[in-house]
Specification:
Elements (H helix, E strand, L loop, with lengths): L11 H8 L5 E3 L8 H9 L4 E3 L3 E2 H6 L1 H7 L9 E6 L3 H11 L5 E6 L4 H6 L9 H14 L4 E6 L4 H14 L4 E4 L15 H9 L5 E4 L5 H11 L3 E4 L1 H5 L11 H14 L4 H11 L1 H6 L4 H5 L4 H24 L29 H10 L4 H5 L8 H9 L31 H11 L13 H11 L3 H8 L1
Parallel strand pairs: 1-2, 1-9, 2-4, 3-4, 4-5, 5-6, 6-7, 7-8, 8-9
Helix pairs in contact: 2-12, 5-7, 7-8, 12-13, 12-16
Length: about 475
């Protein structure tokens, strides 16, 4: 029997060329962000390959609803790689078996640096456990219909990074995505990704490598490909702020927002995902029109979101008209493009600053309290003021206790003869042999108890008489 080419499990560059169609522009796996609607929008504007959001393998196995909600796809959503986080070979394989027929590869997340990954023991916090990783990759490589790939971060030591990549290749990984940052580079310490490390890893393995990190504009993609020699470039933050990044376009933010909402209506996802995407797309615009920010956070459906977009567009129309008349005279502020154009958010480099300077910077980017509640109320925290703005009837006063407390802390019984809770009442009633009608505790008097005992256990002579 001749095996069809589509059924053959390809490896290495054959896998990249045939199954992934020589993908060069890749949308990264992003939790709650790279859902089907966003993937289709990115594909429309030049993305060759998309990853699903990171899925928890153990939850994926045991929860059918999680599988249904987190892995929506369609015919146009190919090529597609499904990413899992896991720390056990059997768990990873069982989860991957569910998806091997609807994707082109399964990816193991070894790059997540967040604290939740540390608590869950997955992502970048497995990069020191080479024996476990080798077993996981090898087990899936032998038992899956599709290739296994890995997304990794580098070590501070370049030689160790190279050995790490070679270990995964030897175990059976058919493609590596290398994020040129270490596990510690996150948040305020993010810094720049090291393309030299990515280039070194690419030269020392014989499988395709994607580069990840420092991609903000289309020009960065070309520079990254030239500097690293990789077959493709992956983008996360840059793609979230401009889904047309790979097409070398910089459209208005409301155009991308409206196209995304059109896709979401066709391929539904939770409204929290939608708000998250709109906040990214409209980041710079909302900084100029702060009055819309909280309103966007309260949007509960597409109708409200569309109305807000139109109002935001109208509020920006004067600036757009001024810019179109004479771009040279328009003040861009600290942005490279007008604020209504899709462009990245450049995270400030705080690596070389003192702790005091970091605190001062964080305070400077927070909205003034008077914008949150109309007055600078020092009695409420910033989070409470935000909640109060969304719900003016919100009451933060602690609720008074409906019942008096017993000495043990439990509520007292309203009809307890001892004025105690049920647990303490039971102990007191048993000790004093006294009933409590309020708690329905009936204690028999001692005389009555002795009579019952005699009835249950009659004297020996009575028993002998009954037998005779």
């Amino acid at each position: 029997m001749i095996q069809m080419e589509s059924d053959i499990k390809l490896s290495g560059f054959d896998f990249w060329e045939r199954n992934l169609r020589c993908a060069r522009y890749i949308v990264a796996p992003m939790v709650d962000q790279s859902e089907l609607a966003w993937r289709l929008l990115s594909r429309k504007y030049g993305a060759d390959l998309c990853y699903t959001p990171m899925l928890h393998a153990s939850v994926f196995i045991r929860d059918a609803n999680y599988r249904k909600e987190s892995l929506a796809t369609c015919v146009d959503d190919r090529p597609l790689i499904v990413q899992f986080c896991a720390n056990d070979p059997e768990t990873l394989l069982k989860a991957a078996k569910y998806v091997e027929d609807i994707c082109d590869a399964v990816d193991l997340n070894l790059g997540c640096p967040q604290s939740i990954a540390k608590r869950g023991h997955y992502g970048a916090f497995l990069q020191d456990e080479w024996k476990l990783l080798s077993t996981m990759v090898e087990y899936c490589a032998k038992n899956l219909k599709v290739p296994i790939t890995c997304k990794i971060r580098v070590f501070e030591d370049l030689d160790r990074s190279i050995l790490y990549a070679q270990m995964l290749e030897k175990a059976g990984a058919q493609l590596l995505t290398v994020h040129g940052r270490t596990r510690e580079q996150k948040g305020a310490e993010t810094g720049l990704a090291n393309w030299d490390y990515i280039a070194a890893l690419r030269k020392n393995v014989k499988i395709p490598v994607f580069a990840n990190g420092n991609i903000q504009f289309f020009e960065d993609i070309q520079r990254c490909l030239a500097a690293t020699g990789t077959v493709g470039v992956m983008s996360a933050e840059g793609n979230l702020h401009n889904p047309a990044l790979f097409a070398n376009l910089e459209p208005p933010v409301w155009q991308m927002s409206e196209e995304y909402l059109d896709l979401v209506e066709q391929y539904p996802c939770p409204m929290s995902y939608v708000r998250g995407h709109l906040f990214k797309l409209l980041h710079h615009t909302l900084l100029r029109h702060l009055e819309f920010r909280d309103e966007l956070g309260c949007c509960k459906d597409f109708i409200e979101a569309r109305k807000l977009l139109q109002r935001l567009k109208d509020a920006s129309s004067a600036d757009v008209e001024t810019y179109n008349k004479n771009p040279a005279l328009y003040d861009l502020g600290n942005l490279p493009r007008p604020y209504w154009i899709c462009q990245p958010y450049v995270r400030p480099d705080l690596c070389q600053t003192t702790p005091e300077e970091r605190i001062q910077f964080r305070e400077s980017i927070k909205r003034p309290l008077e914008l949150l509640n109309g007055t600078q109320d020092q009695s409420l925290s910033r989070n409470k003021l935000k909640k109060l703005r969304r719900n003016s009837k919100k009451n933060f006063d602690p609720k008074p206790d409906k019942f008096d407390k017993c000495a043990c802390g439990n509520p007292k019984g309203l009809k307890c003869v001892f004025d105690l809770c049920r647990s303490c009442c039971r102990c007191r009633a048993f000790r004093n042999n006294v009933s409590c009608p309020g708690h329905r505790l009936r204690m028999k008097p001692k005389v009555e108890q002795s009579e019952i005992k005699e009835c249950e256990h009659p004297p020996n002579e009575v028993v002998d008489h009954m037998i005779s």
